[in-house]
Write a structure and sequence with these properties.
By secondary structure, the protein is an all-alpha fold. Helix 2 runs antiparallel to helix 7, helix 5 packs antiparallel against helix 6 and helix 5 packs across helix 7. It has one domain. About 90% of the residues lie in helices and about 0% in strands.
């Protein structure tokens, strides 16, 4: 069954697709991040248009709803903001994650200090589970835009490695 699955052309095609999708993420992380935010902006516009139409139609018959106007203006504002300031949108997400990781690390500091003082078993894991969130959290808070690009690149590397692994497996399964 495994050989049948991997010997199909679709497996090679998917492997090549993963590699092709991963390369731009690795080579152009800033551009990919900006394109992602622009796609979100387009989604906001697509969401706002039906609400605008419904608001205008309701206004013609004297039954307009302020909620539809709100659901037009807010997404359009977000779309304009995203189109002209995509780096702000990209930097927001890593900042929030960094704050959460930082709080996690700070919360574990007393446990780590007690473990060090008591020479507790598993001390290394306690120190690592405290310091890693602290360090990563600080990096994300201090430089969120670069961190967003790094995450995009890591995702691209993951796709490429996965695609290469699938391609090697598919090709080696074809020629035993």
């Amino acid at each position: 069954m495994f050989n049948y699955f991997w010997s199909r052309n679709a497996s090679v095609g998917m492997a090549v697709l993963y590699i092709a999708l991963g390369l731009p993420l690795v080579l152009f992380p800033a551009a990919v991040g900006t394109a992602f935010v622009w796609a979100l902006a387009i989604g906001c516009v697509v969401y706002a248009v039906p609400h605008l139409i419904r608001y205008l139609q309701g206004r013609k018959v004297g039954q307009s709803f302020g909620g539809d106007l709100f659901l037009t203006v807010l997404p359009l504002f977000l779309a304009l903001f995203a189109l002209f300031r995509p780096h702000v949108i990209l930097s927001f997400l890593p900042f929030v994650l960094g704050a959460l990781l930082l709080m996690d690390g700070v919360g574990k500091l007393p446990l780590m200090l007690a473990a060090i003082q008591d020479h507790a078993p598993g001390l290394a894991f306690c120190v690592i589970s405290t310091l890693v969130p602290l360090i990563v959290g600080l990096v994300l808070i201090v430089n969120p835009f670069q961190a967003a690009q790094m995450v995009i690149m890591v995702f691209g590397i993951g796709l490429i490695v996965d695609g290469i692994g699938d391609l090697i497996t598919a090709l080696s399964a074809r020629h035993p």
